[in-house]
Amino acid sequence: MRIAELASQMGIDAGEAADTRVTGFAIDHRKVAPGNVFGAFQGAAVNGEDYIPAAIASGAIAIVARPEAKVEGAVHLADDNPRRAFARAASLFFQPTPETVVAVTGTNGKTSCVEMTRQIWRMCGERAASIGTLGVTTPDESVSTGLTTPDIVTFLSNMTGLSREGVTHVAYEASSHGLSQYRNEGLSVQAGAFTNLSRDHLDYHKDMDDYFAAKMRLFTEVVDDGGTAVIWADDEWSAKVIEIAKERGLTPFTVGEQGKGINLIARNPSPLGQELKFVHGGKAYAIRLPLIGAYQVANALTSAGLALATGAEADRVFDAVSRLQPVRGRLERAVICASGAPVYVDYAHTPDALAAAIAALRPHVNGRLITVFGAGGDRDTGKRAPMGEAAAAGSDLVFVTDDNPRGEDAASIRSEVMRGAGDKARNIGGRRDAITAAITEANSDDIVLIAGKGHEQGQIVGSGENMKVLPFDDVDVARECAAALSSGGAR
Ligand SMILES: CC(=O)N[C@H]1[C@@H](OP(=O)(O)OP(=O)(O)OC[C@H]2O[C@@H](n3ccc(=O)[nH]c3=O)[C@H](O)[C@@H]2O)O[C@H](CO)[C@@H](O)[C@@H]1O[C@H](C)C(=O)N[C@@H](C)C(=O)N[C@H](CCC(=O)O)C(=O)O
Ligand SMILES: Nc1ncnc2c1ncn2[C@@H]1O[C@H](COP(=O)(O)OP(=O)(O)OP(=O)(O)O)[C@@H](O)[C@H]1O
Ligand SMILES: N[C@H](CCC[C@H](N)C(=O)O)C(=O)O
Ligand SMILES: [Mg+2]
């Protein structure tokens, strides 16, 4: 690829540099190699424009930046929205990409949906992959990327890599951060899904409307013209999403009790799953979902919607739904204690998700539901007391503990959570101690829920140069605590 191709797409004359060959793209000046195009963005922490001279010294031949940025010694690909322009330019370079791509947005359920969509496609015989919080999962392996939505260069190069490996179908998570920073786009996306919207990330977004608007970019800009919007219909924001999708000319495919694409008629919990009745395309279906909890029904049917929207055949899709495997760290049963009490690990880290995880377990509890959780540091502080309230409202006993305190004082975060949790809650610093206390407390007919970290492998403490990730896996720790208790002879 030559600079002229990029420049002409942006209506810019590349002058003498027109024939220079582009070797790659970078958004971090430390990763620039000779012949690269550097994207200089104003960020939350620093201004990428300050690194333009260093990027050019490392061999950058063109800079995508605002018109007012100073660029000397390389082609200035100027645009008022440099992140978007960079995504578009990079997408010309990173070719080919998988032919079938879908994206999922929403506060909760993105990871679950991309995982389930991948599983459904695979069971329909496609070579499918997913990209999101759990990393990049292909038919052969799973590799973590660290962020839910990686940066645009990693994202597009992953897509090209997957395509070269023969992957034809990809489902990816579009977080609100990713959408507002144009981190995941530039390629053809045939369908987008909306799961739900509730409080999260109000440290980054000004208010709920701003948070919602960031998510809606998926439907107003990212999904292809004429594409499909798969929308969970039973959320309070759903009607607005349907309106926005229609205005853009997308085809809405609604799912849920109020859904028309998949109309959920009944959901009856059974010991290890639930019986579902629904109507799709005028035909009534009755299937067994081997997962518990209303929220997993929402995610499974939304994922079915994405598979249908991209051409999979209905009977095969719903047969696949009846064979879905659990998603790592989402209502994952870690252990059954010697007492007989099962311990579940779930990734609920918002007030709404905690309520959903608790509601999922409630029908299975004969005794008490004991919930262990904390709130993350350097994240939305306003969600802490509501998380305490949600946990206390649905549980019989609550242990408030630590979850990635990052740069904050762990005890202060716990007190903010305790403010909402009331007198059902005990405050125990040290997540292992809290898990031990909960498991020690549990009797045969109780259930323990450990929420907030799901699949995570570490406890993040400190920030900046002092940041450390201490190995910690809720599932392993629950098993170790249960084993220690049973070998100690208690209960
Ligand atoms: C708040 C936030 O989202 N920040 C992300 C964002 O930063 P930013 O664009 O504001 O970047 P910045 O650090 O101010 O730097 C500005 C620019 O200068 C460049 N730079 C910077 C330093 C340098 O030496 N040289 C250089 O060129 C940077 O590459 C960047 O382009 O872009 C960076 C590069 O892609 C990300 O690493 C960074 O994620 C930080 C680490 C983060 O913690 N993000 C979390 C909150 C996040 O995004 N989470 C969501 C999940 C949320 C959910 O689903 O619940 C996610 O999608 O992962
Ligand atoms: N459809 C849903 N409705 C309500 N709560 C849900 C739903 N799906 C998942 N949850 C809750 O949210 C938690 C996280 O689920 P998941 O990882 O799928 O969401 P996510 O949107 O990817 O989260 P993140 O923003 O951290 O990437 C689950 O463990 C569960 O407690
Ligand atoms: N994607 C979410 C994950 C939160 C997980 C929880 N364990 C925490 O650290 O708050 C975030 O970055 O806000
Ligand atoms: Mg996720």
Automatic annotation (TrEMBL):
Cofactor: Mg(2+)
InterPro entries: Mur-like_cat_sf, Mur_ligase_C, Mur_ligase_C_dom_sf, Mur_ligase_cen, Mur_ligase_N, MurE/MurF_N, UDP-N-AcMur-Glu-dNH2Pim_ligase
Biological process terms in GO annotation: cell division; cell wall organization; peptidoglycan biosynthetic process; regulation of cell shape
Sites where the protein binds ATP: G106, T107, N108, G109, K110, T111, S112
List of residues that carry N6-carboxylysine: K215
Keywords, in A-Z order: ATP-binding, Cell cycle, Cell division, Cell shape, Cell wall biogenesis/degradation, Cytoplasm, Ligase, Magnesium, Nucleotide-binding, Peptidoglycan synthesis
Domain Mur ligase N-terminal catalytic: 22-98
Residues covered by the Mur ligase central domain: 104-306
Top enzyme category: ligase
Mod. after translation: Carboxylation is probably crucial for Mg(2+) binding and, consequently, for the gamma-phosphate positioning of ATP.
Intracellular or extracellular location(s): Cytoplasm
Pathway membership: Cell wall biogenesis; peptidoglycan biosynthesis
Binding site for UDP-N-acetyl-alpha-D-muramoyl-L-alanyl-D-glutamate: T148, T149, S175, Q181, R183
UniProt feature coiled coil, ranges: none
EC code: 6.3.2.13
Protein family (similarity comment): Belongs to the MurCDEF family. MurE subfamily.
Name listed for the protein in its UniProt record: UDP-N-acetylmuramoyl-L-alanyl-D-glutamate--2,6-diaminopimelate ligase
Species of provenance: Aurantiacibacter rhizosphaerae
Taxon lineage: Bacteria, Pseudomonadati, Pseudomonadota, Alphaproteobacteria, Sphingomonadales
